[in-house]
């Protein structure tokens, strides 16, 4: 093993809490206290995969995630009956930028620091480069490189999203361990020859989460958290 590459939204950072926090502030400023911030975060996130699928299927060219998030935000606000035209200039961009400022799970920074001593560590995220850099600066994520969709020009689980990382790092696919809290991400990575590590995040989708609570396959590593992952990697 030479590198560990990480899914980010849900695996490295707690997107739901961060987006709900930003939504709560937005609702408060606009006297929209009747809306549930967590529900809004979920509704916004539900448009994530369909938006990327349009790029994966060739219906539109690769489009960076910041743009897709902004389009999805406008659609979500419209679905809530909020008049986008009545907002002050910059408000939508400020709310959209909440994806740049998410908090890591408590074990992440220490676990990544340990892994970095022996291995290349990098995000393998659908997030674009500017988003990943901002997030890393705020959350103190010690990446060696920024990989992911904007670098590979492909959204996971497209094969190119995984195989191009190996090309870029000049290693064999099996020398990269894909780390994710999502079994489907790991399944796609395994099909491309990558090694795999599952780290459950049982509250990613809130207290009622019913998916990805357990590994669905015999992944190469199953870890409790990033520090356990570092233990199993010999760091």
UniProtKB/TrEMBL annotation:
<dbReference type="InterPro" id="IPR036412">
    <property type="entry name" value="HAD-like_sf"/>
</dbReference>
<keyword id="KW-0378">Hydrolase</keyword>
<dbReference type="InterPro" id="IPR051540">
    <property type="entry name" value="S-2-haloacid_dehalogenase"/>
</dbReference>
<dbReference type="Pfam" id="PF00702">
    <property type="entry name" value="Hydrolase"/>
</dbReference>
<dbReference type="InterPro" id="IPR006439">
    <property type="entry name" value="HAD-SF_hydro_IA"/>
</dbReference>
<comment type="similarity">
    <text>Belongs to the HAD-like hydrolase superfamily. S-2-haloalkanoic acid dehalogenase family.</text>
</comment>
<dbReference type="InterPro" id="IPR023214">
    <property type="entry name" value="HAD_sf"/>
</dbReference>
<dbReference type="InterPro" id="IPR023198">
    <property type="entry name" value="PGP-like_dom2"/>
</dbReference>
<dbReference type="GO" id="GO:0018784">
    <property type="term" value="F:(S)-2-haloacid dehalogenase activity"/>
</dbReference>
<protein>
    <recommendedName>
        <fullName>(S)-2-haloacid dehalogenase</fullName>
        <ecNumber>3.8.1.2</ecNumber>
    </recommendedName>
</protein>
<dbReference type="InterPro" id="IPR006328">
    <property type="entry name" value="2-HAD"/>
</dbReference>
<comment type="function">
    <text>Catalyzes the hydrolytic dehalogenation of small (S)-2-haloalkanoic acids to yield the corresponding (R)-2-hydroxyalkanoic acids.</text>
</comment>
């Amino acid at each position: 093993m030479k590198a560990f590459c990480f899914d980010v939204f849900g695996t490295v950072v707690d997107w739901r809490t961060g987006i709900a926090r930003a939504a709560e502030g937005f609702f408060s400023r606009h006297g929209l206290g009747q809306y549930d911030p967590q529900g809004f975060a979920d509704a916004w996130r539900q448009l994530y995969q369909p938006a990327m699928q349009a790029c994966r299927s060739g219906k539109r060219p690769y489009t960076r995630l910041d743009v897709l998030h902004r389009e999805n935000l406008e659609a979500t606000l419209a679905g809530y009956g909020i008049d986008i035209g009545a907002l002050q200039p910059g408000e939508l961009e400020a709310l959209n930028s909440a994806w740049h400022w998410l908090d890591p799970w408590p074990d992440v920074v220490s676990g990544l620091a340990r892994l970095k001593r022996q291995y290349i560590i990098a995000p393998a995220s659908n997030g674009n480069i500017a988003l990943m850099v901002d997030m890393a600066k705020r959350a103190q994520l010690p990446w060696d490189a920024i990989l992911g969709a904007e670098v590979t020009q492909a959204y996971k689980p497209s094969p190119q999203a995984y195989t191009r990382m190996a090309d870029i790092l000049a290693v064999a696919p099996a020398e990269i361990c894909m780390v994710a809290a999502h079994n489907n991400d790991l399944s796609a990575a395994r099909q491309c020859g990558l090694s795999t590590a599952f780290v459950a995040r049982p509250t990613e989708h809130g207290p009622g989460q019913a998916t990805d609570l357990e590994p669905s396959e015999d992944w190469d590593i199953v870890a409790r958290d990033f520090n356990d992952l570092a233990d199993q990697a010999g760091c």
